[in-house]
Amino acid sequence: MTEKKKKPTSFDVAKLANVHRSAVSRALSGKGRVSEETRERVMKAAQELGYRVNYLARGLHDQNSGLVGLVASRLDTPYRALQVKVAARELLAQGYCPILIVAEGDMTLPGLIDRLLNYNVAGMIVTSDSPPAEIIDECKRLAVPVVLVNRDLRGTEADRVQLDIQASGQLAFEMLYEAGGRRFAVLEPKEQTYTVTGRARVFADCCRAAGLPVTVISPQRQNYPDGLEAAELFQDSGSEADAVFCTTDLLALGFLDGLRVRQGCRIPEDLQILGYDDIEQAGWLGNDLSTIRQDAGAAAVLAVELMQARIEDIDRPFEVATIPIAPVWRGTTRKKDAP
């Protein structure tokens, strides 16, 4: 039986480089002063021995592992996938190592966050369901910064990156009204989420405040198949709407195909459609979907910046950063020219 090869240690590196072990630590961590000649000797010895720094063990000793938890769900949706991708890239650029936790299935969010805390994470960014307030309190007690992205925990002591729901619903109404819509419908999924349900209801309120009719269509969820379902529900409702706000792009794309492909509806001549998010697929030539851009990349960068600021100053006032939004005019509404 072949004997398992012993992993090299920092002592082995120090011996081969003919330096003190503390010099190995300074050279490989980049912390503390060490001459360039010593650094080169240490790096050469480490490479020759195949030595790698155990950052997790170092973190347990230093109370900072450099690990950051990314807690996410709905990674099958393009918007969330892009958001997580940009957040991970930004964390790596700042010298952190992201750990992705997918908050779906049987595991509860508190249980997942509890697991992350066992790894002595430097911080946490949560884009899935809102964690209970007691979890946030525990993170605060352990001095672990938590940034919530589009989570409804108003009044909770945590930094947040937040969509302006009021502005979102208002902008959707203004775009469709400017495009000539006067009889409206809105897709409000039965499966409620903070931002999607919020902007659907603001849009409906704007219609009513303007004295204009609005029909609420309620598919089960907020994805492409639910958009197909919404197209059937819309036809069955007998609605005379001439403009529809689909509260996510995936809903809009399903709704668009359901009406245009299955029912022969002309878009935008018979009905104008507006999405929300501006995922990549919205701009594909076959879709050409007018929408509202919710900047996923900017949201991710803001989350990392808030986490970094909290690490540097744990006692700073809690902050809410707003995700930028912008109208995107394409072919599913009559107005295509940018304002």
Please identify the structural class as seen in this structure: alpha/beta
Please give the CATH architecture of the largest domain.
3-Layer(aba) Sandwich
Number of domains: 3
CATH superfamily descriptor of the largest domain: Response regulator
Approximate helicity band: 40-55%
* Largest β sheet strand count, sense and barrel closure: 6 strands, parallel
Distance linking N and C termini: 75 Å
Count the E strands: 12
What fraction strand?
A: 5-15%
Give the C-level CATH assignment of the largest domain. Answer: Alpha Beta
Q: Which parts are unreliable, with pLDDT below 50 for 5 consecutive residues or more?
A: none
Quote the CATH topology of the largest domain.
Rossmann fold
Topology pattern, helix = H, strand = E: HHHHEHEHEHEEHEHEHEHEEHEE
Q: Biggest sheet: strands side by side, in what order?
A: 2-1-3-4-5-11
Shape: elongated
Q: What is the helix tally?
A: 12
